[in-house]
Specification:
Elements lengths: L6 E5 L9 E4 L14 E9 L11 E5 L41
C-alpha cells in the first residue's frame, strides 16, 4: 500500500544535519529529489503519517552519473491496538463475565 503525504529530507551529511531539500510522497507513495549534483546523499523520513510507526533509518545513496535514477523503499508499520471492554454491574461494580456487548 502506498502512503501519500510522507515527508523526506535529503542531506549531504550522514547525521541529517543541514537538509538540502524536503520532498513529500504523492498519491503513488513516491517522493522525488531532482537536479542533484554528483555525490553521496543521505535520505530519511521526517515524520510518519498518523497511525504509523516512524522509520528513522538513514538511507545512503550515491549519484554517480548524470541522469541516475536511484530508488529507495521505505516501509512504515501500521500501529495496531485493541480495545478491551469489561461490563460491570451498576450496583456492585463486579465484572459480569458472561455479558455480551454490541457495537454498531
Amino acid at each position: 500500500m502506498s502512503l501519500e503525504g510522507v515527508s523526506f529530507n535529503i542531506s549531504k551529511n550522514s547525521d541529517m544535519s543541514d537538509p538540502i531539500k524536503t520532498a513529500v510522497t504523492n498519491d503513488k507513495g513516491i517522493a522525488s529529489f531532482d537536479d542533484l549534483e554528483l555525490g553521496t546523499y543521505f535520505v530519511r523520513e521526517v515524520e510518519p503519517l498518523y497511525g504509523y510507526e516512524w522509520n528513522d533509518h538513514i538511507y545512503e545513496v550515491e549519484v554517480k552519473e548524470n541522469g541516475d535514477v536511484l530508488t529507495i523503499t521505505c516501509t512504515n508499520r501500521l500501529i495496531r491496538s485493541y480495545i478491551k471492554v469489561n461490563k460491570v454491574d451498576a450496583e456492585n461494580h463486579e465484572e459480569m463475565r458472561n455479558a455480551q456487548n454490541r457495537f454498531e
